[in-house]
Amino acid sequence: MKIPVLMYHEIACRQDTASRLAVTPDAFASQLGYLRDEGFTTISVAELASALAGELGRLPKRPVVITFDDGFADFHGAALPVLLRYGFSATVFVTTGWIADAGPHSAGIRPGCMLSWSQIREAAEAGMGIGAHSHTHAQLDQLRPGTLRDELVTSKALLEDGLGRAVPGLAYPYGYSNARVRRVAHEAGYAHACAVGNIMAGPRQDAFALSRVTIRRSTSLATFGTIASGRKEAVLFLKDRSLTKGYALVRRTRALLTGASRGA
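Predicted structure:
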C-alpha cells in the first residue's frame, strides 16, 4: 500500500506571500474537495506510523495524511475552516520559537505571520494534531550534539506545556536529518518523525523518516490528483529527488569538514 502524506506550508494568495510553497485558499479547497470526492479518509501521522509498523489492515480504504510545516497563522484562518467543512484532520508542525506570542522563548526571524498560542490550542481542540518543528527551525544535521538536543527537547517541552498533552511527532526543518538526528529525536521522547523525500509512504519506512510529498503553488488540480493516487510518482518528483540527493552529498561533506575543523 502506498499512502500519500501531503506537505503544505502557507495557504495564502500571491499578493500575500512570495513563497512558491504557498497554496491559494481556492486551490486548497479544490484539493480537499478532490480528496472527498475520491473517497479519501484522513489519518494522523501517529496512525500512519502505527500502520507502517504492522497494522496496515486497520487503515481505511483510501488513507491520506495532511501536514503543515512551520506554523503560519493562515492555517487557522484559511486552512482549518476548510478542513472542518470536509471532515478532515491535519497535523501542524510548529516551530516554537516563531510562535506569535512566544514571549521570552521567541527565537529567530519569523518568516511571516505565525500562529499564536490561542490559535494552536483551538486547532488542537478542533481535532488537529500538533507536532514539533524544532525551536528555531535550524538545520538539525549541522548542529553540535548539545545544541541539537536543545532544539528537539525545547520544542517538545514547550508544546506539551502549552497544550497539556503529549506531543509525539516531529518534522525536520527543511527535511534534513541523518542517523544522529534521528537517534537524538528518539532519545528526546518522540515516537515518529517526518522528512520530505517526495515519495509515497509505504511499508518498511523508518518511523523517524516518514516520507512526504510537496504540494506547492504550481501544483495543478490534475497533478494533485496524480500525486494523491500514487500514479507517475517517479516522474513527478524526479527533479526534486535528484536535487535532494546531490545536496545531501554536499551537506555530508560540509559536516565532515566542519567536524574536522572543530577537532583541529
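Summary: The chain is about 40% helix and 15% strand.
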